[in-house]
Amino acid sequence: MPQILVEDLAKTYRVAERDPGLLGAVKGLVHRRHRTVEALRNVSFSLEAGELLGFIGPNGAGKSTTIKILSGILRPDSGTVLVNGRVPFTDRIAHVSRIGVVFGQRTQLWWDLPVIEGFDLLADIYRVDSARYRANRDELVDLLRLAPVLDQPVRQLSLGQRMRAEIAAALLHEPDILFLDEPTIGLDAPSKLAVREVVARLNRERGVTVLLTTHDMHDIEALAQRVIVIGHGQVLADSPFETLRANVLAERRLIVDFAHEAPDVTLPGVEIRSRRGQTLELAFDPARTPTPTVIAAIAAAHEVVDIHVGEPAIEEVIARFYALHGAGEA
Amino acid sequence: MNSAALLLRYFSASLRSQLQYPGSAIMLGIGAFLTTIIDMLAAWALFDRFGQVQGWGLGHIAVFYGVVSTSFALTDFFTRGFDVFGGEFVKTGAFDRVLLRPRSPALQLIGYEFRLSRFGRLAQALLVLFVGAAVVGVTWSPDKILLLAWTITGGVALFTGLLVLQASFAFWTTESLEVFNVLTYGGIQAAQFPLSLYAGWFRNFLIFVVPLGCVAYYPVLAILDQPDPLGAPDWWLPTAPAMGFVFLAASFLAWRAGIRRYTSTGS
Question: Do A127 and B1 touch (CB under 8 A)?
């Protein structure tokens, strides 16, 4: 049986609506109108122990709702959820003892307490045996390079330091599954790299199953073996990232520097994307027009200085994908 | 680690956080001591003018007030989490984090803060209680001390129930309802005077709806060795504080319904 099993999950919210302004607020007290929002409809997927899954989609697509249901905070309207064989929201205490959750924008540590004291308290909350706790804590402190900040109150940490401390805090009780909700949001480049490295190591070396939501496609590219794209409360795609990229945008980019003013290139199946001085950016589908053919044709007709073959940026892939499925900002 | 030991761990962590700003805690404590003294000054002014009201003097009032105020001061040490629940937990979604930990939500909220500054209120309440008792000539036999402890325990249960109820409403309103202060702070004001002074409907409110009378008036009559002027049977007087626990249990039903609502709507 898979470690996480989700079948036909559905969840709707009732959102109170009111007219703008003071009059609207007063009317809302007397008579409330409700709008039903379908956050999830028929979401199904499963995850084996040790997988590292990226969960992406526009804001309001249903990512957070799914994470909340998987972590036991929210009950679905219908459908099946089993995590480690347990139903998260009916068996809350047993369930949350075995998972770790990091919310990028919320802390689970104590603002005025030194990091180490917050860790100690968490170990007691999770009933971690003290010898195991010490060994595990020291390993995490080492892995996340937290030694210099252990004695500082959390409020004095930089965002990057805090996020590393948060990840350590979520792992003190040695969970089998780690949910990361936007773990790199607002971090500077070195901190993002550090977080990615740690998540990859935890997954590789400890076999922790990771489910990650993010808006940063570089997180996905660096980490996720598998990606689920969610939009309008439905799973739009569930595949390895490379497959997703290949399916959605089978497109190559060719950037050609000429020895002279960039010429007009008219080859079948090749489009000009941009022209800047002596440089031309061309786009084509390599399945229909093989890359060597394009290069050969251009080099035969013009004097070429340099050629660079590339792929569209990941952000572009995803934006295209959303557009294709009509899944813009919900 | 069991729940009681964990609570001590929470409290010691909270104290260490507060001691990062020791001056603040001390000043707040002194402030609470001084402002609550004013409560007593008002009663003193009243009785200085009229002497006695229906046979009750300032000493009696001090004992009624001291008992209910001690209960509230003790409650106030550990119920901060419930008091600020709407604004700090529901509105911000921080209650998610509470649900993500393998402990009961109520336990975690009690552990949220141990308010050091409440020593000021407790000191004032105990001072008023024992000075009042000395004035009216209470002799503290062991059974009276036991009765006092039982009364205060019932009072703590009742005030805790009020705060749990206030927090439960926040699941629906997402704000901490200030209107509950009418019941807590107003309740202390109301319970410092003997129930026999009040109109029937208000008396019934203080017995059957928010049973403040049961954790102050009735048991204090027993401590003062006075029969109830309204004719409640003698066995009832020391039994009444149990109503505080009944109220607390009912509040937890609302609390559970609130959590259920939260987990089905996600705030």
Answer: yes
